[in-house]
Amino acid sequence: MRNIIKMFLVIFLVGTFAYTGYEISRLSNRVQKIENKLGGPKKIACNERDTVEKVRRSVVRVVGGESEGSGFAIQKGGFILTNFHVIVSEPDPKVILPDNTFETGQVIMADKDADLAVIKIKKDLPAVSLARLGGINPAEEILAIGYPLGGSLPGESSVIRGAFSRCAKDKKNGVQYLQTDMTMVSGISGGPMVNICGEVVGINTSGLLLGGMGMAISSDSINEKCHQMSISKDPLKDVRKTIFEPNKNALEAVRAFYNYLKARRLEKAFELLSDNFVMGYSFEQWAWG
């Protein structure tokens, strides 16, 4: 009788261990799948909700002369990165901040071929960090953040979720692109593309009109091209210059007045007004309304 009990006990223990091992294996496989989706074991502790909340504090809306897009802080001190095609015809773009206030920015570096531009504003937004591209895995989940449709869709920045597909380098301009399965729409260009931990892997750049594929300039190319712009003898060679010649003729005086207004240089604009128009008002009274 004792032998029978021992035998059943052994069978029970063996079965228990086998089942426990099976469940551990299943759990390990599930964890492995989650790790692969998120980009590795280091990223499994990151929270998508916290990441979006953090990155949104660094994302702005950029209004150029003929287009509108997004941008994000890449360095402390008010340095904003965006796409060149967003600011192509505007050296002093309007930058709408996350709290819905705005500033008139100044383009300080640009590269038309790389489709990158850096804008300087007074507001010091929290800068996001750039990831090393070697740390991104195939099919890893990534997020694109920006302002699709610009002013036509007000509110906080939108988030698009997708997966990384592959890298490809343009032989003509030397820019490396990330291909994703995201659908990019107008206005999201210039915004950050981040991993689950909020590190920038690229800058949203373009996509198919029919959807299903979105492209971003990689973080490696961002680093490389920003360095090249910073050491260039003429980092503004691709940017249209605003020339102020108010004393040349009446037309140039009017053009200078409106350009000063657009650049928020109100004191300069006020100086161009005639006494008949000012009617004894001080600059403070005129600027107030």
Offer a concise description of the structure:
It contains 8 helices and 13 strands. The protein is of the alpha+beta class and 289 residues long.
Label the CATH architecture of the largest domain: Beta Barrel
Count of helical regions: 8
Name of the CATH homologous superfamily of the largest domain: Trypsin-like serine proteases
Radius of gyration: 27 Å
- Name the helix and strand elements from N-terminus to C-terminus, one letter apiece: HHEEEHEEEEEEEEEEHHHHH
Q: Name the beta content range.
A: 25-35%
Q: Rough shape? A: elongated
Given helix and strand content, the structural type is alpha+beta
Largest sheet: 7 strands, antiparallel
Instruction: Fill in the CATH topology of the largest domain.
Output: Thrombin, subunit H
Helix fraction bin? 25-40%
The overall pLDDT, averaged over residues, is: 82
Q: What number of structural domains do the residues give?
A: 3
Span from first to last CA? 102 Å
Strand order of the largest sheet: 5-4-1-2-3-7-6
Give the tally of β-strands. Answer: 13
* The top level CATH class name of the largest domain: Mainly Beta
Pick out its properties.
about 290 residues, alpha+beta, Thrombin, subunit H, 3 domains, seven-stranded antiparallel β-sheet
